[in-house]
Structures are given as structure tokens and as C-alpha cells.
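Retro notes
What went well: the complex prediction finally ran end to end.
Inputs used:
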Amino acid sequence: MTTELHLEDLMVGQLFTSGSHAVTVEAIKAFARQFDPQPFHLDEAAAAQSFFGGLAASGWHTAAITMKLLVESGMRLAGGLIGAGGELTWPQATRPGDVLTVVSEVLAVTPSRSRPERGFVTVKCETRNQRGEAVQVMTSRMLVWRRKS
Amino acid sequence: MTTELHLEDLMVGQLFTSGSHAVTVEAIKAFARQFDPQPFHLDEAAAAQSFFGGLAASGWHTAAITMKLLVESGMRLAGGLIGAGGELTWPQATRPGDVLTVVSEVLAVTPSRSRPERGFVTVKCETRNQRGEAVQVMTSRMLVWRRKS
């Protein structure tokens, strides 16, 4: 069991690498049916004729898998991973059979001015497939607590 | 059936309002079990003691529901909704019983310089609960096709 991290434990440049998650055709279609019912996420033949040229996972599915990897095996913050928001891009689509891993890098650690017990950490989380190619790059601001003294 | 929109049909300031989607306790927990297994998304008692002060949906669940509303009843782009990425914030959590609606506003319409058949539209999508409060604000850049002449 890893110790939970507080504001004082975080430093710019720290890296965290998650476990991995394999993405199946069935999972891509199940997510799409529920949240992103577009032909290129649901049907191989339609996807082949689309912009994607083949079945592709919803970007929101990639985002959700990224969160799962972060929660289960990423940076372990005391109090949990609570995001205020961020920026994300999908440089390429997640495909059936891809195995995803998330590499997180601390970009900034900012104590709160108004609330001494908390702060924010800015983290760049790159979700990579089995070839090391980025399928999502997300920079997010997360709430982090100061160690009780 | 609404006509599908092309680059030429889009103008800065256009507004699109989606249908609505009710968020249940069961759906919040099911999404969390699969993608964001943290106590404040899974268990009422643990959530009451957390930052959220009660059960809250994962931000990624709010994002996924937003996508569902956009696909089913939002801005209808020819070729589908294909996002390149964007920025998002969660001003407050989605809660059990919330009924969400997405209001989308076109912020920019940009023809591609290198590829005459396509362009990008920048859209601000505000996901609101039944009290009109924003639970997610997302500004995203989406691919849009020019009408074949």
C-alpha cells in the first residue's frame, strides 16, 4: 500500500506511471451505445467509411479509462483524485486491442492563498497505447490537501 | 429529422439546446464502479464525510452524459461530432436526481487552410442542472465538413 500524498510530498517533475488496461471491441461498443452512439464507435463497416477509417473508441471512453487507471494505479493523493477541470486533446483514436497506460507528470504545485489546508496540483497525464503513442493528453488541476501538522 | 450542418451553415452566436437526461443514484454508482471507483462516487456514507458532502457523480460521467445529449439532440453536424479536444471545468458536482441539459454556443468557425473540404467549429457547451446551474463548461474544437459544391 503506497502512502497517500499531500501537498508537501509533491514536486514539479515527479512522474507516476499507471498499470495498463486493454480495450476490447465489446467495451468500445458498450460505452458508445450508452454515451456516444455514433456509427464510427458502434459499427465496423460504417467506421471504415468514416473519418476514422475503422472502429474507434469515443474520446470520452479514453478519458474514462484514463481516470480508472489514475484512480487504481496513478498518483495516490490523500482524499482522492478531485479534478477542478483541465484541457484535453486526443491526438489519435483508441482502437480495439489497444493497451493503455497513463504517465503523469507534476507541472505545478500551488498552495491555496485563502485556504491554508489545501492547494492545487497541475498534472499532465499522457495516455499512451502499446506503441507508446499518445491517445490523450490531459492537463488538469486537482485538489490536494496539506498534511495536518 | 433536422438537416445536417456543414461549415457554411454555422455562425458565431448560434445556440443549440439539447434534450434532458435524469441522473440516478444507480447510474452514478455504475459509472463509478467501472471508471472512477472512489468512495464519494460509490457510497453515500463515505461521500457525506468527503469534500463533496454527499454522493456526487464522477466528472467523467457528467462529460459522458453531455456527449450523449449532444449526439442525440445537440448541434447536428454532417459526418458526426468529432472532437479534437478542448477545455473543461466542473463548477459543481452532478448529484443524484439532477436533470441535465446542454446549451451549446458557436464561438468560432474556422475553415482549414490546408484542407479546403473541412474546417473547425469552436463550441462552448454548458451542461446545466434543473436549477440552471452549470455542472460542466466545455469549450471544444470539432471537425466540420464543407458542403460539397
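What we learned: The two ends of chain A are 22 Å apart (CA to CA).
What to try next: split runs per interface for comparison.
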